Automatic annotation (TrEMBL):
The lineage of its organism: Eukaryota, Fungi, Dikarya, Basidiomycota, Agaricomycotina. It holds the Pfam family HAD_2. This is HAD-like protein. InterPro entries: HAD-like_sf, HAD_2, HAD_sf, PGP-like_dom2. GO terms for molecular function: phosphatase activity.
C-alpha cells in the first residue's frame, strides 16, 4: 500500500489532521448523520460519505442533502440536530490505532508537531480534552482550527477550507515558526519552498491530501479502508505514501528517529 517507487524525503516537522486521522470521529459523524436521516427514510452510503470528508461543515451538509432532494430537512436544521447529538458523544471519542505512540515518539525526540483541522475550536476542545494527557497535551496548544481568525488573515478576509493549503501553511508558520511564507504560486520564494518541503502532513481525507500537497509538503495518507474501495479521483494531487494505519508508519523512511519501542 505504500508508495515505495520513489525515495521519500527527509522531513523536520509534522502537521496532523484531526478527524478520522487522530480520533475515530468519522464513525460518530456517520452514526449521527444516519440517525437523523432515518427519520426521513434515507441513509448516507459510503460513496456519499467520501464526498463529505474534509469539506467545511456547511459545504459538506449541502453536499449530503443534495442526494436527498425530496426530504424536507434544511441545512440549518440538519446542522442543529447533528451538533446536538454529536456534542453528547465527543467526550467519549477514542484515539485511532498508532497515534498515541507516534505523537509520544515525535515529542520525545523534539520533532516539531502541530495540528491543522477544519473543526471549530469549541468542538476541538470537546473532542480532545479527555485525551490531553496521552496525546494532545504534547502539542502545547500548537493547533489551528477551522474557525480561527488567523485563517481569515491568510485568506484575505475569508476562511478557505481544504483543499486550500491555508491551514497547513498557517500551522507551519505561526505554530511552528517555520519560514514558509504565505500563499501559493510565484509569491513563494525558493527558500520558502524548501522550508515547506521539510514538512510532513498526516491526513485521512482527499481534500486534506490536496491541501498538504498544495502547501508544498509531503503527505502520508491514512484513509478509511472504505475509501480504498473507491477509484482515486483523476486530476488531483496524490499522497507520497499511503498506509493502512498509523501503526504502519516507519519514521526512519522520512529521516526521523526510529521507534525505540516494539509494538
Amino acid at each position: 500500500m505504500q508508495n515505495d517507487h520513489q525515495k521519500l524525503p527527509n522531513v523536520e516537522y509534522a502537521i496532523f489532521d484531526l478527524d478520522g486521522l487522530m480520533i475515530d470521529s468519522e464513525r460518530i459523524y456517520t452514526e449521527v448523520t444516519n440517525q437523523i436521516l432515518a427519520d426521513y427514510g434515507v441513509q448516507m452510503t459510503w460513496d456519499i460519505k467520501a464526498g463529505l470528508m474534509g469539506k467545511p461543515e456547511k459545504e459538506a451538509a449541502a453536499h449530503l442533502l443534495s442526494f436527498f432532494p425530496d426530504i424536507s430537512l434544511t441545512i440549518p436544521e440538519y446542522l442543529q440536530k447533528r451538533d446536538a447529538l454529536q456534542n453528547l458523544l465527543w467526550p467519549t471519542v477514542p484515539p485511532l490505532p498508532g497515534i498515541a505512540r507516534l505523537i509520544k515518539h515525535l515529542h520525545k525526540h523534539d520533532i516539531p508537531i502541530a495540528i491543522s483541522t477544519g473543526t471549530r475550536r469549541a468542538n476541538f476542545q470537546m473532542k480532545t480534552s479527555h485525551l490531553e494527557r496521552d496525546i494532545f497535551g504534547m502539542f502545547h496548544n500548537k493547533v489551528v482550527c477551522g474557525d480561527d481568525d488567523i485563517l481569515k488573515v491568510e485568506g484575505g478576509g475569508k476562511i478557505n477550507g481544504k483543499p486550500a493549503p491555508d491551514g497547513f501553511i498557517v500551522a507551519a508558520r505561526e505554530m511552528l515558526g517555520r519560514s514558509v511564507g504565505k500563499g501559493e504560486g510565484n509569491s513563494v520564494t525558493l527558500a520558502q519552498r524548501a522550508e515547506r518541503a521539510k514538512g510532513l502532513v498526516f491526513e485521512d481525507a482527499l481534500p486534506g491530501v490536496q491541501s498538504g500537497k498544495r502547501a508544498g509538503m509531503s503527505v502520508v495518507w491514512v484513509p478509511d479502508p472504505n475509501l480504498l474501495n473507491l477509484p482515486y479521483p483523476e486530476g488531483i494531487e496524490k499522497p507520497d505514501q499511503t498506509l493502512p494505519s498509523l501503526e504502519a508508519f516507519v519514521p526512519e523512511q522520512w529521516g526521523l528517529p526510529p521507534f525505540d519501542d516494539a509494538l
